Amino acid sequence: MVNLGSYHRDTVSRLISWGHWFTLFNILLALLIAVRYILANPWPDTLLGGAYLLFSWLGHFGFIGFFAYLLTAFPLSFLIPSQRVLRLVAVLVATTALILLLVDTQVYQLFKFHINPLVWDILLQQSQSKSDLSWSYLFVSIPAFLLLELLLSSYAWRMQFRRRPRGLGRGLAALFVGSFLLTHLTHIWADARLYAPITAQKSNFPLSYPMTARSFLAKHGWLDLEQYRQQVALQGDPLRTGRLTYPLQPLEVIPAAEKRNLLLLVVQGLRHDMLNNVNMPNLSRYADQHLQFERHVGGNNRSAGSLFSLFYGLPAQYLPEMQAERHAPLLLDELQRQDYLIGAFASEGLDSEIYQQAIFSG
Questions:
Q1: Under a CB-based contact definition with an 8 Å cutoff, are residues 83 and 15 in contact?
Q2: pLDDT beneath 50: ranges in the chain
Q3: Measured on CA atoms in the order 348, 351, 357, 359, is the torsion positive or negative?
Q4: H helices of 40-125, where?
Q5: Global pTM?
Q6: What is the DSSP letter of 357?
Q7: Checking CA distances to 213, which of 78, 79, 116, 259 falls within 20 to 30 Å?
Q8: Could you give the CA distance from residue 6 to residue 254 in angstroms, rounded to a whole number?
Q9: Gap between the Cα atoms of 179 and 55, Å rounded
């Protein structure tokens, strides 16, 4: 029993040691792939903004990689006694994670936002997205990453039997942890000062949530929240402004000889299948007598997001930028250009931000 216990402890110790090296190699691979995020955006205008970008790149993916290890390979080291089985599971998990990261870099280069359930659903429907995203590279990338992970797994296993430079692991850990902490502390300062070269980088990387501490700073007298709000209202949110090119190209519209009256009824929370002769007979009969557009894709389940996608034809991820820059939808701009008289009526009023700062801002 003593021998078996000692053997089990030695096995777990070797698996944990292997896991650390395997995680390090995958962090370096993730950093290499994540360079595509950096290249997809203009380099920051200031030296501090550039330094923040590099430290956030190191700290963010170092943290994500090690956190993924703590959730997967580390607990499995105690549950799976076979090192070959554990290594195979870790290789499959790492390959999947890196492929998702690669796909996300491709999406980010095209649309400047990261994968979420809505975006994923749209991308899978090429006829609706009309995107330039190609999936053919995955047929090469998946087997290549799988082979590379197998080689890294084998090399990491041999690493623990070799003499390594003293302090190498601690030095690398200090670099990643230091970069992570420095990134968040710097962002706290930049957010309080509205320092755009740093705050504009908030969405550069996936799963990135830089720390803010406005309430804490205000509680200790280091930040005047009222003055902060006035400054945001005066100059706009630096995180959102200056990022849009809307529209990408000017519209080419030939006005119809006979102008039609347009009536848009928006009912919050109404499902499409409720518009029938049983539940809503009057509105259903009215719809049957007029044009019906049945291929609209709702951009969000919330009221503001769905209104935004209805008027702009864009996913709700663009709403904050549109509000910050006060871009009216092209639909209303064109109607005004054609001298339409527009009336808007809402049961709850038109004072909300989606109306004042976006839809009716023009």
A1: yes
A2: 1-2, 127-129
A3: positive
A4: 47-71, 73-79, 83-111, 117-124
A5: 0.69
A6: I
A7: 116
A8: 82
A9: 5
